[in-house]
Amino acid sequence: INYSLTCGNNITSTWDLGLNNVTIYVNDTSFNNASSSVSFNVSVGDIISPIISIQQPTNSTNWTSTTVDVNYTATDETALGSCWYTNSSGLFNYSLTCGNNVTGSWDEGDNVVIVYVNDTSSNNASASVSFGVDTIIPAISVTAPINLSNWTTTTVYVNYTVTDTNLGYCW
Asked: What mean pLDDT is reported for the chain?
C-alpha cells in the first residue's frame, strides 16, 4: 500500500499484528531518489483471561456442616498472577495461593463465594458458587394425645409442633 507523506513528518499509524515492513521513498526536484526501510514486529501481548471453574460445592446444594471446602481450578496460557475470594458479604477479599482450595467455616444459611484470579498481564476472571448451610436439627414435639393414654373412640387427633429455620416437609 502506498501513502503520500509530508516530508519530515513522522508516521503515526495503527500497524498490523505480526511483521510489518515499511519503506519510505523520497525524491528531490532533480528526480534523485532515495529510500530507507525498517521491519518490526507488533504483538499486543497477553490479552486472554485466565480460566477458572468451581468443582465443589455445586450450586444450590445444602450442607449440614459449616466446614465446606470450595474446590476450584484456575489456568492461564502464560502464568497465573494471584488468586483471592470473597464471601457473601463481599466486604472483604481474602488472598489465596493459586491452586489451594478455599477452606473455612461458613455462616448458617445461604452463602455465596466468588473466587477471582488474574494473570501476570492483569487479565481477570472469576467464578461463583451459592450453597446453604443448615446445622440446626428440626425440633418436633407431639402435644396430644398424652403418651400411653387410652381412648374410647377411633377418632383421635394427634397434635404436634415443629420448628426449624429451614423447615422442609413433615411426613
From this structure: 92
